[in-house]
Design brief:
The complex is a heterodimer of chains A (about 70) and B (about 900).
Chain A: H1 2-19, H2 24-33, H3 39-60
Chain B: H1 3-31, H2 40-47, H3 53-66, H4 72-82, H5 84-97, H6 103-110, H7 115-151, H8 155-159, H9 163-179, H10 190-218, H11 222-232, H12 247-263, H13 265-273, H14 280-296, H15 299-308, H16 319-326, H17 330-370, H18 383-407, H19 414-425, H20 428-437, H21 443-468, H22 475-479, H23 500-522, H24 527-537, H25 539-542, H26 555-566, H27 568-582, H28 594-608, H29 610-620, H30 628-703, H31 709-741, E1 749-752, H32 753-771, E2 774-778, E3 785-788, H33 790-807, E4 814-822, E5 825-832, H34 867-877, E6 881-886, E7 892-899, H35 902-910
Parallel strand pairs in B: 2-4
Antiparallel strand pairs in B: 1-3, 4-5, 5-7, 6-7
Helix pairs in contact in B: 1-7, 1-10, 1-17, 2-10, 2-14, 3-15, 3-17, 4-12, 4-14, 6-7, 7-9, 7-16, 7-17, 7-18, 7-19, 7-21, 9-17, 9-18, 10-15, 10-16, 10-17, 11-15, 12-13, 12-23, 13-17, 16-17, 17-18, 17-29, 19-21, 19-23, 21-23, 26-27, 26-28, 28-29, 30-31, 31-34, 32-33, 33-34
């Protein structure tokens, strides 16, 4: 159980690493050039919040036992 | 001094007073055992000491010129926080198991309690902290200048001194008050943690209030802000290109920040040392990133607003304070200043406490203890000295920060200064993270790697900052030292195009970890290092395992040591706990055992670090060092003990077997004894019955001489018959005892079983005729050769026949005798049509005196009860078997076998 959760959190960390770096950021940057919406900051904050929400969901479901 | 600035200063001082009260409250509650900080929320808020004046003022400064370039500093920690339950949890487990007091202590303990590693880490941590502290001084001093400028006065004139110096003095005093009031055995600063958690709330709220004011009061919401940014031509800040960072820079800065959030001395202090419950990591794992996200939401809006409203990029570090101030919101400006002050004070307090603990435990005390001339090991009370060293350490760190500010910091942005510290402490990452995962990492590797990384950091990042400040000539950066272009500090070996911090991180971390691995593989580790490596890497398995310890120390000497370093009350508390653990008072003269020495060292380590504690205890405990010989000796001893215990186990198993055998033999003896008693009792009883009858009839005859002749004859016949029965009984008993004791004289010879059976039948004919039994005989004509005692076998046959006659019904009794060959044996069956023997009694009838008084036959049987027992003995003596089974006639079939005598048969055939 605990090691399952750790594995899932590591996966979330890898997803976060991918979201916050090349090439995802480059893709968003290209889109941002053709719109007036501040896409780059929006993208970072939304992706960031999503990662936190995912981690919170993984960590808080099933109560808080000794990790 | 004007009213406004005076108010601001007064409120700030009052705020610091409030913090101090809060800390005292936290400490008092901790002493009462009712901790107010033992929950994941306070833990998370204490981790937010990560957000300093850099975040509070500096992020906006970066955002104003480089857009989202402020983000890697928070994305990195988010990534690390997701791994809280992985490597970070392991570090916490180790720190708790071995009483770690700082990051230097941790590194030193991992690498064989090495004083070199501890000292080196301390120096790097101190040098890394200095620019970081100077950043806080600069931010607060700038804030004060702004407040005074608003009043139209020079702060230097108003305060009579340099504001940065005053800030430094106040912060140093405050840190000393907070962090070094006493040295306690647990080394938790619960009051301090409570205060910085409170400060984390204050700085977050203040920043949000400023952000909301700017976005919704100065502007009418985000879309208005965005539209006016477009109009002002600053909307390009919202593109990634504005960061002027390559993706490699971006990644390296993220990585650097992820290391920093764990390795900065203050972060290690709150995350690892001050952690009260390892389970708090779980919630902090997502709440800490959430805090980082929330405090960053208004960074871009404030930066854009500042630019739109006429601020320049150079002033952007003070937008948070400047915007409310310029727009006449004096109280909001004070609030903004308070938030910044919170961020700065929290950082300085925790950082200096962490660094000063390292300076005293891992640098100064080990050195002082090593200098024998000082005779410190003999001083009665060292607590005062330790506190003094720590206070000096705090002053040193703050003074260093102040000097850095004046020589370099004034020319640099907040974030640039901060990054220097990040890259510095990141040098701990290889030795720490490899250290908890790879047992092969050794002290030599750690020292060489750290030293190399540290030098690369000095060369590629610290030196250029002195160039920027104008202390060193610019030609070094452009042309390289002595004109060697390959060695240009910001383009080492020609690696150009990277952000200076990313460039430094890349080179220093690569060289650091490569050397750590390489040197570890090429050099050998001491035994203690290997031992510590195992304890650290396998912390989950080795929790609670006592360390190896050899040496002699008196209990009294150890106690004295604890008193000297921890003070008398703390030492006495430990001694009381020890007494309670043992259930008896400790005698000062008895030698201390390994466990006691180890616990004493651990308690000392909590106060003064592993390296110092080891040095101190070693001075008291003679012959402590574990050299290869000693280790081999221990192993040898262990092996001997193991061998001994193995032999003991074997012996005890053998003993168990022997005991079981003895028990069985004893039971058999008891059984035999009981049987003998039973036998005697039965025999006596059996003898008494006929004797009683003989005696009573004899008495009748004696007392009545004039009895009728007929009566007299009847009585005499009874007497005669009873005497015969008595004789028979005695003969049987004698026979049986002779057979059983092996004193029977057997007349063994060849015999024809057919003949013997017929003889037996003839002997029983009278009896059968008397009972009217119909006899059926099925015996072959050819001879059945056996080797036996003729008379005894006839006796057996007779026994079985008379036995059968006893149970057959009258009239209509039938008995059948059969003899046939079955392989190598002859089988004789004597069947009857009596009531039979129930299966459960079939074994018992062969026991002595066992008489079948079956339900069907209420008449008392007339035998001695020994017939079948004797028959069994006889048959078995000649290698045969005797048993009872169901008869074809309906009653019992008593059968016995005797082996065929081949010799006799062959002889007969030959004749």
């Amino acid at each position: 159980m605990a090691s399952d959760r750790l594995a899932r959190l590591c996966a979330v960390a890898l997803v976060a690493l991918a979201l916050f770096n090349f090439p995802m950021v480059e893709v968003v940057e290209r889109w941002a050039k053709v719109t007036s919406v501040p896409l780059v900051p929006l993208y970072f904050f939304v992706a960031w919040a999503g990662v936190i929400a995912l981690a919170a969901w993984l960590l808080e479901r099933g109560g808080g036992g000794e990790p | 001094m004007s009213h406004f600035a005076a108010w601001a200063i007064a409120i700030s001082l009052a705020y610091l007073g409030l913090l101090f009260a809060l800390a005292s409250f936290g400490d008092r509650r901790a002493e009462q055992g009712r901790s107010v900080i033992a929950n994941p929320y306070i833990y998370t808020l204490s981790l937010a000491v990560y957000c300093t004046a850099w975040t509070y003022f500096g992020s906006v400064g970066v955002a104003a010129s480089q857009g989202v370039a402020f983000l890697p500093v928070y994305l990195g920690p988010t990534l690390l926080a997701l791994l809280f339950l992985g490597p970070v949890r392991k570090i916490l487990l180790i720190a708790k198991a071995y009483g770690i007091t700082s990051i230097a202590d941790f590194a030193s303990a991992r690498y064989g309690k090495s004083g070199t590693v501890a000292g080196l880490v301390t120096i790097v941590a101190l040098l890394g902290s200095i620019p970081y502290i100077s950043l806080q001084l600069k931010a607060v001093a700038t804030g004060i200048e702004l407040l005074f400028a608003h009043d139209g006065v020079s702060e230097r004139g108003a305060l009579g001194a340099d504001s940065a110096l005053l800030v430094a003095l106040v912060l140093a005093a405050f840190s000393i008050l907070f962090g070094t009031r006493h040295i306690d055995a647990t080394e938790h600063h619960q009051g301090m943690v409570l205060a910085i958690a409170f400060e984390s709330v204050v700085k977050l709220l203040c920043f949000l209030v400023v952000g909301i004011f700017v976005t919704w009061v100065l502007f009418s919401g985000p879309s208005d802000l965005l539209a006016r940014a477009e109009a002002a031509g600053v909307v390009d800040r919202l593109h990634f290109s504005a960061t002027r960072l390559s993706y490699a820079d971006w990644f390296l800065l993220t990585l650097l920040s992820a290391f920093a959030v764990l390795l900065l001395p203050r972060q290690f202090q709150v995350m690892v040392i001050e952690n009260l419950d390892i389970r708090h990591l779980q919630r902090a794992s997502w709440m800490f990133p959430l805090y980082l996200l929330v405090i960053n939401i208004f960074v871009l809006p404030i930066a854009l607003a500042g630019l739109i409203l006429g601020g320049t990029v150079a002033e952007a570090d003070s937008f948070v304070l400047g915007l409310p101030l310029v727009h006449g919101q004096a109280w909001l400006a004070i609030l903004a200043f308070l938030g910044g002050l919170s961020a700065a004070t929290a950082m300085v307090i925790v950082e200096t406490v962490a660094v000063s603990t390292m300076i005293s435990n891992d640098l100064v005390m080990p050195l002082l203890l090593r200098i024998r001339a000082l005779g410190l090991a003999q001083r009665p009370d060292l607590t005062g000295l330790i506190l003094g060293v720590r206070r000096a350490g705090i002053i040193l760190a703050v003074a260093g920060g102040y000097l850095f500010f004046h020589s370099v910091g004034e020319a640099m942005g907040l974030v640039s200064i901060g990054y220097i510290a990040f890259a510095g402490v990141a040098q701990f990452a290889p030795l720490l993270l490899l250290g908890i995962a790879w047992k092969g990492a050794n002290r030599n590797g750690a020292v060489v790697g750290l030293l190399a990384g540290f030098l690369v950091w000095l060369y590629t990042l610290v030196l250029p900052s002195f160039v920027i400040a104008g202390v060193l000539p610019e030609s070094i950066l452009r042309e390289g030292p002595f004109g060697i272009a390959l060695l240009r500090p910001t383009a080492l070996f020609g690696l150009e195009g990277l952000h200076p911090v990313a460039h430094c991180a890349l080179w220093s971390l690569t060289i650091n970890s490569a050397l750590l691995v390489l040197v570890s593989l090429l050099s050998s580790a001491s035994d203690l290092e290997r031992l510590q490596a195992i304890l650290f890497v396998d912390v989950e398995q080795s929790r609670g395992t006592p360390r190896l310890w050899r040496g002699e120390a008196k209990v009294g000497a150890l106690e004295e040591l604890l008193v000297r370093f921890l003070g008398r009350p703390a030492a006495e508390a430990i001694w009381q706990a020890e007494t309670a653990r043992r259930g008896r008072p400790l005698n000062p003269d008895e030698p201390a055992d390994a466990g006691l020495v180890e616990r004493a060292e651990r308690q000392l380590a909590r106060a003064i670090g592993a390296a110092s504690a080891r040095a101190v205890v070693a001075s008291t405990v003679r012959g402590e060092s574990i050299g290869p010989d000693a280790l081999l000796e221990i192993l040898d001893e262990t092996q001997k003990v193991l061998e001994y215990s193995r032999r003991l186990e074997q012996k005890s198993r053998e003993l168990e077997v022997a005991t079981a055998e003895l028990r069985r033999a004893n039971e058999r003896l008891r059984e035999l004894d009981r049987l003998k008693d039973d036998f005697l009792a039965t025999v006596s009883h059996e003898l008494r019955t006929p004797l009683t009858s003989i005696r009573s009839f004899s008495e009748i005859l004696l007392d009545n001489p004039d009895l009728e002749a007929e009566e007299r004859a009847r009585f005499l016949r009874i007497i005669t018959s009873e005497s015969e029965r008595l004789t028979r009984l005695i003969n049987d008993v004698l026979d049986l005892s002779k057979i059983e004791s092996g004193r029977m004289e057997w007349k063994i010879g060849p015999a024809d079983l057919v003949e013997l059976v017929r003889e037996g039948i003839r002997a029983a004919e009278g009896l059968m005729a008397e009972k009217g039994v119909e006899l059926e005989v099925a015996i072959p004509d050819e001879p059945a050769p056996v080797t036996c005692d003729r008379d005894r076998i006839v006796q057996v046959v007779l026994n079985l026949l008379s036995n059968a006659c006893k149970f057959v019904p009258r009239p209509g009794g039938r008995v059948r005798v059969e003899l046939r060959r079955k392989g190598s044996v002859f089988e004789i069956r004597v069947e009857d049509n009596g009531p039979g023997v129930p299966p459960e009694a079939r074994e018992l009838v062969f026991e002595k005196f066992h008489q079948l008084t079956g339900n069907l036959n209420t008449q008392k049987p007339t035998g001695t009860g020994l017939g079948l027992a004797i028959s069994k003995q006889i048959v078995e003596h000649f290698g045969g078997r005797i048993w009872i089974e169901e008869a074809t006639l309906g009653g019992a079939a008593l059968c016995f076998t005797l082996p065929v005598s081949e010799e006799a048969g062959a002889a007969r055939v030959a004749a």
